[in-house]
Structure formats: C-alpha cells, structure tokens
Amino acid sequence: MRGESPVFVAPQHGAKHFPYRADIDGLRAIAILPVILFHAGVAGVGGGFVGVDVFFVISGYLMCSLIAGEMAQGEFGLLGFYQRRVRRIFPALFAMMLTCAVVAWFAFMPQELLYFARSMSAASLFTSNIQFAKEAGYFDIGAQMKPLLHTWSLAVEEQFYIGFPLVMILLQRIAPRQVIALVLVILAASFAAGIGALNRDATAAFYLSQYRVWELLIGVVLGLGAIPELRSKMGRQVLAATGLLLIGIAVFTFTEKTTFPGFAALLPCLGAACIIHARAGNGVVGRLLTLRPLVFVGLISYSLYLWHWPIIVFTRYFTGHELTPALRLTVILASILVAIASWRFIEKPFRGSLALFKGRLLPAIAVLLVGVTSGAGTLVVMSGGAPGRLPADVRAIYAATYDRSHFYQDGCFSESDHKGPSNADIESGKVCALGDLDDTGPDFLVWGDSHAAAMAPAIDTAAAARGFGGMFAAHATCPPLNDVPLTTKGDTRRCTAFNNSVRDLIREKHIPLVFMLAYWPKYVHQSELPNQGDYFDASIPPSVADYSTPVATALDNTLAQLKQEGVKVVLVMDVPEMGHFVPEALAKAKLAGTSTDIAPPWPYIAERQALARSMLKKYAAKYDAAIVDPLAAFCDNDHCLASRNGVPLYMDADHITASAAKSLGYLFVSAFNGAANI
C-alpha cells in the first residue's frame, strides 16, 4: 500500500520492523499467569480474568504499530498481513481444537458434544464470542463443560484483525490527518455502548466485539503515537509502576461478582497502556518486566492460553469434581509443559523467514482447515451430538435429557433473553392453555418459574381429568411474587414487570384459582446446590444461609392481595434437588458399571428443603391457601430417588422430566375439588 501521511509514523518505531520489546513479553506473562491461576481456582486472584483485557491492549498496540509502520514506508499489503496472522494463530489453535475434538468424541455425552461441536465450528470461523453469547440461556450447560470457551477472546481479536486494517486503509485515503480523532471517537462510542449494554444484556456486553473493541483501541492510540513520549527516566518508572499497580488492584480485588467489563475494565486496560507507553528500560520496573523467566512465559503465552483451559476442563470432567490443591498444581504445570511443546514444535515452525507453507499454499491450507473443522462441527450438531456412539441402553437413559414438557417452548415460557410471550401477551391472555381445552375458562392459572414449567404436565393431566381449563404463565428465574428483590437488579426489574403482567391477567380474566410454583429453596437461600452438575459432591454441605426475609415478605403481600380479590391459591412445594445432572450421571454410571443411586442422602435434602417448606406452610395457614407437596413421590423411608425402574425422574439437576410430571397428576386432583364453586 503506497502513500504517506505524518499520522502513520508512530514516533516510537516509524519503521516496518520496530525493535523487539522484551518488556511487552513480560507484560504478556503478567497477563496470562493470573488468567491460569483464576481458572484453576487458586485463592486470592479473583480478578485473574482481567488478563484477557491486558492482552487486548497489547494486541491493539502491536497490530497498529505494525500496520502504521508499514504504511509509513509504503509497504503495507493486506494479503501479507492476513498471512502473517494465519501463521501466528492457526497452527496452535487448530492443533488444540483437534485434540479437544478427539477427547470430546470419546468422553462427552450427546448434549455436551453438541455444545462442543457448535463451539468448534464457531471458533474455526472466529465467531465463538457470538456463539457463546447466544448460548447463555437458562438451560445452557455450565461454562466448566466448554473446552473452547476461552476462544471467545481470540474471536474478538480476530474480528479486530480482519476489520482494523480495512479501516486504516480507508482512513488513510479519506481522512489521513483525522485518524487519531476518529479512533478516539470510536473508542468512546464502544465504551459508552458497553456501559449501556451492561444494564440490558450483560452477557452481550462481555462477549461481543462492539462492546470490547475500545480495549484494543487503547492500544491503537498508543501505536499511532497520539500520546507524547516521556523523556524523564524517573517518569517512565513511575508510569510503569502505576500500570503494574492498576493491574494488580484488578487481579487481587475483583471477583466474579464485579460488574464487568464497564468501568472496572479501565483498571487493567489503563494499567497495560501505562506499561506499554512507559518503555521503562533499565530501571527497576523495566528489569522486573524483562526477567528471563517472565519473558519466556510471555513468549509461550499464546500456547499457554490455548491449552490451559481445555486441560482444566477435561481434568475436572474425568475426575468428577472441582480441582483439589494437588490437581491445581498438576494442571498448571501440565499447561506450562504442553505450552512449551506447542510453542516449540507447532508455533515456531510456521513463523519467521523459514516458515512452513509459504506463498499460495498457505491460504489454501487455511481455508481447508476452516472448512473441515466447521463442517465436522456442523455434522455433529445436525446429528444431535452423535448419540449413536453410545450403547443402546445408555442412550435410553440419556434420552431423559430431552424429556422436557411442551410448556418450555418459546410460545409458552418466557426466557430471560426475551424469548417467549411478552408482558403484553400475558396481560392480554395470549398464553398457553392447560387442562380441558374445550372448557370456556380460564378456571385456573399456573404461575411461576422454570419449575412451574417442569411440573405443569401434572396440573395439565389433573385438570383435563376434572374438566377444567386454565392458563400458563412462567418466566425463567422469576418466583411468582409481587415486588420481590432478587440477586441482580436486572432480574428484579425483569421479574417485577413479568409478575405485574400476570397480576393484571388474573384481575382482567377474573381467574378464581392460582397455582404458585417455584424453585423455592434457591430463592430463600439465594443459591443452587454447590457445584451443581457434573462436579456435584454431596459431602459438601448444601447452601442453607437464610435469605428468606424478602421472599417471605413478598409472599405475604402476594397472598394477601390474592385473597382480598377472592382468588383461591395453591402453593406447590418444590421437588428435591439432585445436584447431579441426572440423565448424564446415570448414563455415565451405566457405562462405567458403577452405582446408579446418585441422589443426595435424606439428611442433605431435608436440611436444604427445611426453610422453604416452613415458609410456605406458615403463609398457607395464614391465608387459607392449599398446599401440594410432591416430596413423598420422590422420597420414602428417608431415601430419595433420582430414577425409578432405571428411568430418570429429572432432565437435569432440579427439573423433573415431562414423563415424571405426568405421573404426578394425582397430587393435584384434590386441588380442583370444589373449584367449580369458587
């Protein structure tokens, strides 16, 4: 690319090949080590995830420096730039994905493999950040089950690498002297958009490029030489030390509960910018950043980032529990050793003047890799996770994963991502029906959260048998209570709006009978079971901290209002939580020939259920509400069941299957006795 403008001459380098900076490799080490420690569960580094943000700033700086330097010399070529990115990124990335694919094929259950295949296709196309943002729904599998989850940040960077050179070329032609100003405008717009998205959709704000590109653009501003170089050696040391301090504050004080990225992301990003701009040289901070061990970790940081997360995921998967201190040390050391091998034998052969596959062969190989990988992932997704890999008896057990009532469908169930009936639909009665569909009703309403959707087939069966027709209104993570404060403000606002719409529906349709169902233990304890899912361990005590006061107050107010309006209420107690993802746990036990008695012991369940059951009984008595208690259908003689006659009763850890729910219709028949006279 020919042409020249002063703005494309960065004062720090101004040449195609600017001098190597060992301090940036040291900064890479400072970025990657907290990430690994955080992911391994090492105490004290709750903000280790900010290392990714440090990498963003570094990437923005280096890419801009390369492009601006080459443009200043009139030597920039778009194809050459993309080929260098392919040689830098593809070999280790696709080696890691292929290794994960082989392990996943032989180890994962169908749903796990399906999610993996989706992520592999997306990662090969550098859109995994978009895929993970879309997957983050209520019934999404846990992050600890996604070996390629960490590729979201690579996707953000690759999207930047694809788009940024094009923007630079365009700006060079139409506004060469306004480049810095325009970059600053885009940076500010991205940052502001990210702040706004945190309130609307925190998942999107975390994953999507438009909300994170400002972090890379901080590096771009430095690469463009927009900030005057410091002349004072002491000033450089102070600036670099300030950068280390800002990153350290984020690493050691942030937690997973920190609102992020938003304003909090400024700390690590500005910290990285301070260190990059300082060029601390031979001072104290400079010598620290250029320590040989630190620089070496920086050199292998890309491979270390790629391999550490799959190693952690598969270690947890095969051991069946969270990492112990010994396992933490093992996975950290294993990650370093694998990263060294990856750097030496996969990364290095494809870089430099002696790089393998140069010229026209490189794009062809890159396209082939992308096509084969994304295509293979698509085929696995189309097959539903390739269940044919499993023996027939194991497949039959695992099939309970998909035994979900139709009340979960988008037309019935309101998700937190706004899928399903809108609040306006609910107010106008455009909701799913239950029971006798020929009844002119509505005679009753089922109101609750996802546990209401799970139990709805039982009420549907009983109502149909008695000739009653009703309506269904349920929203993910929303208990059927007026003005109840929930863990996050977003949930509180969303659930308040939903529940207000349901209350309007009850009044507008003069509904005489209301069933209220919810995941009651979760709300009164503000938590699910510890390590619920693949790593559940019943030897770890359940969460029983008492946070019931706001829930009890909201229940009191809701029942008082409904009674005043002449509505009869049936409070439905919750089913016992299993902790394990039941179909997966039973299928794996069947494969391994181990015990299928996976339910937590009775004392565990009784302790966990006690507070919620006591609260419901208290307010049912106060307002003459009926109670339906399904506990006896799952527990007998102080022993609870996750399956009956080899058939799972749950589709995950706490939602019962549609088949199990239909078998419980008898529990609700009495609730309709006398309903015609209400």
Low-confidence stretches: 1-16
SS elements, strand count: 11
Question: How many H/I helices?
Answer: 27
Distance between the first and last residues' Cα: 81 Å
User: Which structural category fits the helices and strands?
Assistant: mainly alpha
Beta strand %: 5-15%
The largest pleated sheet is described as:
7 strands, mixed
Specify the helix fraction band: 55-70%
**Cα Rg:** 29 Å
Shape: elongated
Q: How would you state the average pLDDT, rounded? A: 91
Write a concise synopsis of the structure shown.
The chain is mostly helical. The protein is 58% helix and 6% strand. The chain contains 27 helices and 11 strands.
Question: Can you characterise this structure?
Answer:
The structure is a single chain. By secondary structure, the protein is mainly alpha-helical. The chain has helices spanning 22-39, 51-72, 78-107, 110-124, 128-135, 151-174, 179-200, 202-207, 209-223, 233-253, 266-278, 284-289, 292-299, 301-319, 325-347, 361-382, 392-398, 423-428, 450-466, 489-509, 520-525, 548-564, 582-592, 602-623, 631-634, 658-662, 666-669, and strands spanning 413-414, 432-435, 444-448, 469-475, 513-517, 568-572, 626-628, 635-636, 639-640, 643-644, 647-648. Helix 3 (78-107) packs parallel to helix 14, helix 5 packs across helix 6 (151-174) and helix 22 (548-564) packs parallel to helix 24 (602-623).
